[in-house]
Design brief:
Its main location: membrane. This protein has 575 residues and is of the alpha/beta class. It is 63% helix and 11% strand. Among the domains are: 310 residues, ABC transporter type 1, transmembrane domain (ABC transporter transmembrane region fold); 77 residues, 3-Layer(aba) Sandwich (Rossmann fold), CATH 3.40.50.300. It has 20 helices and 12 strands. Strand 4 and strand 5 form a beta hairpin. The chain is elongated and about 120 Å long. Bound molecules: adenosine-5'-diphosphate and magnesium ion (MG).
Length: 575
């Protein structure tokens, strides 16, 4: 929690001014009972109306001053707390943006969302309340005690009994509630997770008639969260009544003993009234502190969760001494690369070595799960290889700044991802300053114009969230256009042709061949027809290279390749 307070720094002035104002507010609150006691003891007892009015005016002024201070202080402390939340959310967001995929897998999307929203809210709230209450409470408490003792020291002894009881109460509740708060945040994670899965998987859920099942699953998580919250609130519900009871008993005791003292003539009525006010103020300030104490555990549970995110040092680091490639050619070389996904038993890639050269088409083929996408993930440096090295133009990619590396590459993922915005926006994602003409050309190469021109606003047609209003093949073609508009030295196509029909597939490849003449192209494919004319074909089998060569060579030398081919092509197509 303390660690996070550094994000409050930009609002330092707000905090200081609001603390000063709270000081004035507290002084005015403490001064009022004193004035009242004078009115009673001097004004009323002697029947001096002028004195009463005079003191009354001062009371009004003091009260007004206190109120204005309180309002401005509230305003400033809210500003500071909300600003703090803003900064913290930004920090978490940019930290998460730097995560490698390993770290993403570790937290999970749902939890990262809760941490950025709900957890930040918890802390924000505590900061606001703390600023307002905690600064005020000690002032009022100490000031109140001094003034109460000065009015009547013996009567103040009552506090010696009530304050320890109050402290004990708070301590017990704190102990009981603390462990539950962390549990609540975890349950919120779970509700978010199920909600997210349902929102993104709604088609599948409908198709498999799992609505009732999912409803039940959500309901269970929801009830779980509700029960836990009720449990916590049941404990917390004790706090206020117990404190009020204690406060009222204290007042009864004060009136009882005070009455006796007034009878004896050792105390005046006005003093007793002021005394009661002081006791109320002292007790209330302690109650305020305990409210904060009760909120603290929840906020510190949240702070822990946020710190977990902020403290991750992304595994993929920027090089200390970055190297630069002057004239990028785009030669990619794998040297004995082995890589396992975190937590996996088997390496996804084992001792992979190959070289992909500019102006040549390198194809990777193999069954699902053979490690094809993983090869591309490593070139993109989404993950770092465990051993071996990957070189571009002879430079280890770990020595290249990540942005420089990715700038060289036009990457089309296996599953096309589009963003909300227009078609043109989505293609321009590949190159911010692309002119309309370039966008048109890229779309043309990707064979996307045909369906774009059928849309109402053509390139300015809106794409709904995630590209739901496009077919798989259409999305894939936009993703290809997005890579093409970049005009990179290296193209990585991850199985993106499988979503296209044979005719479009052939057309796209023909257009690409012209466009990517001088670039290094790596194509991952399922269909032999897609890659038959590649300069070199790498056959992957369970993370290992089963053969490298041209179509003809592999047909003669590689059993696995032959099997793949035979399962797809008829005899006369083979040659
Ligand atoms: P392909 O693209 O050839 O179908 P992948 O390269 O995607 O295969 O996957 C290779 C292997 O790595 C598979 O066994 C798969 O289960 C595993 N794998 C892929 N992605 C992850 C991941 N993020 N975490 C753990 N294992 C993964
Ligand atoms: Mg794949």
């Amino acid at each position: 929690m303390i660690k996070l307070l550094k994000f409050l720094k930009p609002y330092r002035n707000y905090v200081i001014v609001s603390l000063i104002l709270i000081f004035f507010q507290s002084i005015s609150e403490l001064y009022l009972p004193n004035l009242m006691s004078d009115i009673v003891d001097i004004g009323i007892v002697k029947g001096d109306i002028r004195y009463i009015l005079q003191k009354g005016e001062i009371m009004l002024l003091v009260a007004a001053g206190g109120t204005v201070s309180a309002i401005v202080a509230s305003y400033l402390s809210s500003q500071a707390a909300m600003g703090f939340g803003k900064i913290l959310r930004n920090k978490i967001f940019s930290q998460v943006e730097n995560f490698s995929l390993q770290e993403f897998d570790k937290f999970g999307t749902a939890s990262l969302i809760t941490r950025t929203t709900n957890d930040v809210n918890q802390i924000q709230m505590v900061i606001m309340i703390t600023l307002r209450m905690v600064a005020r409470a000690p002032l009022i408490c100490i000031g109140g005690i001094i003034l109460a003792v000065s009015k009547d020291a013996r009567l103040s002894l009552i506090l010696l009994i009530t304050v320890p009881i109050l402290a004990f109460l708070v301590f017990v509740l704190y102990k009981k509630a603390m462990p539950l708060f962390d549990a609540i945040q975890k349950k919120i994670d779970r509700v978010n997770l199920i909600l997210r899965e349902n929102l993104t998987g709604i088609r599948v859920i409908r198709a498999f008639n799992k609505i009732e099942y999912e409803k039940k699953r959500f309901n269970e998580a929801n009830i779980d969260l509700t029960n836990m919250s009720i449990k916590v609130n049941r404990i917390m519900a004790w706090l206020m009544p117990a404190m009020m009871l204690l406060l009222n008993f204290t007042i009864i005791a004060v009136i009882w003993f005070g009455g006796i003292r007034i009878d004896k003539g050792t105390m005046q009525v006005g003093d007793l009234m002021a005394f009661i006010q002081y006791i109320i103020q002292i007790m209330f300030s302690l109650i305020m502190v305990s409210v904060v104490f009760v909120m603290l555990p929840r906020a510190s549970a949240s702070a822990l969760r946020i710190n977990e995110v902020l403290e991750i040092v992304p595994k993929i680091k920027e090089p200390e001494k970055p190297e630069e490639i002057k004239n990028i050619r785009g030669v990619i070389e794998f040297k004995d690369v082995t890589f396992s996904y975190p937590g996996a038993d088997e390496p996804a890639l084992k001792n992979i070595s190959f070289k992909a050269e500019p102006g040549k088409l390198t194809a990777i083929i193999g069954g699902t799960g053979s490690g094809k996408s993983t090869v591309l993930n490593l070139i993109m440096r989404f993950y770092d290889a465990d051993s071996g090295s990957i070189l571009i133009d002879g430079v280890d990619i770990k020595l290249l700044p990540q942005t420089k590396l990715r700038d060289m590459i036009g990457y089309v993922p296996q599953k096309a991802v589009l963003f909300s915005g227009t078609i043109a926006d989505n293609i321009r994602f590949g190159k911010n300053d692309a002119a309309d003409e370039q966008i048109r050309k890229a779309a043309c190469i990707a064979q996307a114009t045909e369906f774009i021109f059928q849309m109402k606003d053509e390139f300015n047609s809106e794409i709904s969230q995630g590209g739901k209003n496009l077919s798989g093949g259409q999305k894939q073609r936009l993703a290809i256009a997005r890579a093409v508009v970049k005009r990179p030295k290296i193209y990585l196509f991850d199985d993106c042709f499988s979503a296209l029909d044979f005719k479009t597939d052939a057309k796209v490849r023909a257009a690409l061949r012209e466009e990517t003449k001088d670039a290094t192209v790596i194509v991952v494919a399922q269909r032999v027809a897609t890659i038959m004319d590649a300069d070199q074909i790498i056959v992957l089998q369970k993370g290992e290279i089963a053969g490298i060569g041209t179509h003809k060579q592999l047909l003669n030398t590689c059993q696995i390749y032959r099997e793949i081919v035979l399962s797809q092509l008829s005899g006369e197509e083979l040659i």
